[in-house]
Amino acid sequence: MKALESLLVEKGLVDRNALDALVDTYENKIGLRNGARVVARAWVDPAYKARLFADATSAIAELGYSSKQGDRMLVVANTPKVHNVIVCTLCSCYPWPVLGLPPVWYKSAPYRSRVVIDPRGVLGEFGLELADDVEVRVWDSTAELRYLVLPERPAGTEDLNEEPLAALVTRDAMVGVAKVAPPEAGGKP
Questions:
Q1: 177, pLDDT greater than 70
Q2: What pLDDT is recorded for position 88?
Q3: Which residues are catalytic?
Q4: Which domains does the chain carry?
Q5: How many alpha carbons lie under 13 Å from residue 142 in its C-beta half-sphere?
Q6: CB count, 10 Å around CB of 103?
Q7: 138 φ, ψ to 5°?
Q8: Is the pTM of this model over 0.70?
């Protein structure tokens, strides 16, 4: 990819600064922070959370996040007894408006096949060990339906409002390969 990018820049077909700005937009402005706001809003606003489960597409659009890559969304919630993980076994369907650019591992054939066959093993490779009594559910995204995991709200965040909560939420937690870590003891999120 880097070789292709360099060649396009060298030939004057692509402006490197414009390309960098586009990537920065998707990595830092459009996706991940949007999904984190959706999660944080659901954690602090029970009415919003109910709307999110009833019609995720509309609830997400309330916050201004919608596009063709997320025009039909379903939100699944992690609980102490159920852990959800997202995959697209056919290609790499991914909700760009709320998660930004998909990570390389999400599009890889090993992840796409193995997370269905051995989800606990794959989660373990991400450093996430779940108790034996936690049910793992794997959700397969398609071009017609994309998923977002509503992670469990971490302990010790009861006094936080939406903005600091959103700062804790990671893309990996919204895909289901990680949990949201509590804020550092004595520090800010």
A1: yes
A2: 94
A3: 88, 91-93
A4: 1-30 (no CATH), 32-185 (3.90.330.10)
A5: 2
A6: 16
A7: -105, 125
A8: yes
The set of residues, in sequence order, having a beta carbon less than 8 Å from that of 141 and lying 6+ positions away, is 86, 87, 88, 93, 94, 95, 147
What is the maximal distance between C-alpha atoms in the chain?
57
Specify the amino acid at residue 81. K
Q: In terms of pLDDT, which residue wins out, 189 or 21?
A: 21
Mind spelling out the 3-state secondary structure of 7-72? HHHHCCCCCHHHHHHHHHHHHHHHCHHHHHHHHHHHHHCHHHHHHHHHCHHHHHHHCCCCCHHHCC
Q: Which residue has the tokens 């922070």?
A: 33
pLDDT of residue 32: 84
Could you tell me the two tokens for 126? 């991400």
Entry field: residues in the chain: 189
Q: Tally DSSP H helices, then E strands, for the chain.
A: 11, 4
